[in-house]
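Supplementary notes (optional reading)

For those who missed the lab, this is the record we used. Protein: DUF2304 domain-containing protein. Length: 130 residues.
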Amino acid sequence: MPEWRLLIIVLAVMVLIVVVEMMRRRKLREKYAAMWLLVGVGVVVMGAVPGLPSWLASLTGVELAANFLFAVAAVVLLFVVLQLSSEVGHLEEEVRTTVEEIALLRCELEDAKRELDSRLTAAEDRLQRS
């Protein structure tokens, strides 16, 4: 086995270990980890089976295996960007909703403080009159 194939397999296994460890420590959510685990397993398989990239390239009509691998990598990165963009959109909506709720709660708190102050003032006036 050529050294570069061994290096690719070792790096992919290291990525798999890091992803599993990040999941274990709750630093990476499962929906993102699944994608990275699939990528890691795919890289291990591509590195372990010598003719697989060339066979897949010829199957899809791509002339060079390297071009096929770059195209697959680009598609994977496109899905990563799409997934993360979707998540950012959801998080922006949650932040906006939370900020609006906090603003409403602050208004209610200020109203309650004013009401309490007016009641205290009225009670103090009654006590002074008596």
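If you only remember one thing from this example: The two ends are 100 Å apart (CA to CA).
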